[in-house]
Specification:
This protein is α/β, with parallel strands linked by helices and 495 residues long. Helices cover 45% and strands 20% of the residues. The strands form three sheets. The protein has a 16-stranded mixed sheet that branches. Helix 2 packs across helix 3, helix 6 runs parallel beside helix 7 (166-177) and helix 13 (383-390) packs across helix 18 (479-492). The longest helix has 33 residues, at 4-36. The N and C termini lie far apart (57 Å).
Length: 495
């Protein structure tokens, strides 16, 4: 029979040993984290990670090991280098860049920066049509697929077969029946989360399309990287002749969402239809992603020559970005343009969570007397990001930035901004740290009076459907909301 005192003593020893090992583990995690967390990471991101690890040592450290690396696997990064050289060797259209009107002196260095980072040149001889209506965008893309004779390249972050997108998928089927090669890419995780994912896969098989998941997370098949590194690009290229890109996913406008806040949310988007040499640049980006997923290198098609009103011909440059690149290409482009502005900056971003460098660029412009305006939504579909975004409003308003809140229940999901009357950027990239570091994105920088004029009209339509936020109104919000906004801001920096 074991003596009760002896048993209690042995239990105390075991508890002491476990406590000691736990303390040693926590101290080791704390010391190791101090060394590895800040390496090649923004200070605010490193501090957020360290704060999480020190509050929840074991859980925080395991999360860091799972989500801490912002780099894609080595082979994917090597493929990006290979395709960059291919793009450099097959560039066309540089001889068509407009020279008949004064260029802002700051534009060519920025174009060269983009070329050095993403390999894509600034090319001239393009035309562009902005499409701000959700249904019209789907209809226009569907019509182009029905006109295809050689190839259709489809790439979207989210894809779904539903009542609004059914004509698009039906057109893909008709194209295959005509002998057109249809290739489809979609982000694995983003599309998997949407209702009807399996039905979409069956539909693509029935159509006869060649399709692949982008950045698949299937470790049981040897396919794994940090699960929140996603391909957020959105474009359609037909015959190498016409390309669509912008903010819109291939899904019905409510994203299959039910009642939410004041009603069912609807997304408002902006797509752009390009013709000219820039189409080859967008298609090269599709070829990059196709090569990354399949090891098949697609031949580039010769871009069509645009015959249009000379006053509407544009210079344009595709700027790819994401964890496949060494630098944050989109952030560097955005900041360069923000500092180049001389008169006005108009920004539309559904998820506005800038890093410190961008926040300084925007507030510096406003404090310098420039007309700086920001268009965001009155409500959000992602609560944590939405509240992190709100945490920046006070600093922006105090600097002189005008903030327009697009009225509920619409989510203003368009992504674009204009610099003076000179340059615009349109694409898939948000102005948030996720788009800068974690998502593969596409941005197109364009120069031309016609597209700036069209964007000015779109910006005015946003104002007409928004209310302007004032500093007095903002400072009257409940104290508990301020606390929640600030806490959300800290979590947004954990990358």
């Amino acid at each position: 029979m074991v003596d009760e005192g002896t048993g209690s003593g042995a239990g105390a020893v075991i508890v002491a040993i476990v406590a000691g090992l736990l303390l040693l583990t926590i101290v080791t995690i704390a010391l190791v984290s101090l060394v590895i967390v800040p390496r090649n990471r923004r200070p605010q991101s490193a501090l957020a990670w360290l704060l999480l690890i020190y509050i929840l040592p074991i859980v925080g450290f395991l999360l860091f090991l799972t989500l801490g690396s912002r780099r894609l696997p080595k082979r994917r990064r090597e493929k990006q280098v290979e395709i960059n050289q291919y793009i450099l060797d097959t560039t066309v259209g540089m001889d068509q860049v407009s020279t008949n009107e004064p260029w802002p002196p700051w534009l060519m260095p920025i174009a060269q920066l983009n070329r050095n980072l993403g390999s894509m040149p600034l090319v001239g001889g393009n035309s562009a049509e902005l499409i701000a209506d959700y249904t019209e965008s789907l209809r226009s893309m569907t019509e182009e697929i029905d006109a295809a004779t050689r190839s259709v390249h489809v790439e979207f972050y989210i894809m779904s077969v539903d009542e609004e997108t059914e004509p698009f998928f039906a057109a893909l089927g008709r194209a295959v029946d005509r002998g057109v090669t249809v290739r489809v890419l979609f982000d694995h995780v983003a599309s998997l989360r949407v209702r009807g994912y399996r039905s979409m896969l069956r539909r693509l098989d029935a159509i006869g399309a060649l399709w692949h998941r982008m950045l698949p997370v299937r470790p049981w098949r040897g396919q794994y990287q940090r699960p929140d590194l996603r391909n957020h690009r959105k474009f359609l290229i037909v015959d190498g002749r016409v390309a669509f890109t912008g903010s819109q996913n291939l899904i019905e406008r409510t994203y299959h969402r039910g009642p939410h806040w004041s009603g069912r949310l609807e997304w408002k988007e902006l797509m752009v239809r390009f013709e000219g040499p820039i189409v080859a640049g967008v298609d090269a980006l599709f070829a990059t992603d196709w090569y990354s997923e399949t090891d098949e290198l697609l031949l580039r098609e010769t871009p069509a020559v645009v015959e249009a009103d000379p006053t509407r011909i544009l210079d344009a440059q595709v700027v790819p970005s994401g964890p496949a690149f060494e630098g944050e290409n989109n952030l560097r482009l955005f900041n360069s343009l923000l500092y180049a502005a001389q008169e006005q900056i108009q920004i539309c971003s559904p998820y506005f969570v800038p890093d410190e460098s961008m926040l300084y660029a925007i507030t510096t412009a406003a404090q310098s007397g420039l007309d700086v305006q920001l268009f965001v939504s009155e409500i959000g579909d992602q609560p944590l990001v939405f509240h992190a975004q709100r945490s920046y409003y006070e600093e922006l308003l105090r600097a002189g930035v005008r903030i327009w809140l697009y009225r509920a229940p619409t989510v203003l999901h368009a992504k674009h901004f204009t610099i003076d009357d000179q340059v615009a950027v349109i694409g898939s990239s948000n102005m948030d740290m996720r788009s800068f570091s974690l998502n593969l994105e596409v941005s197109v920088m364009v120069r031309g009076a016609s597209i700036i004029s069209e964007l000015r009209a779109i910006e005015q339509s946003y104002r007409d459907n928004s209310r302007e936020l004032t500093l007095d109104d903002w400072m009257r919000r409940p104290r508990h909301m301020r606390i929640f906004d600030d806490l959300a801001r800290v979590t947004a920096t954990v990358q």
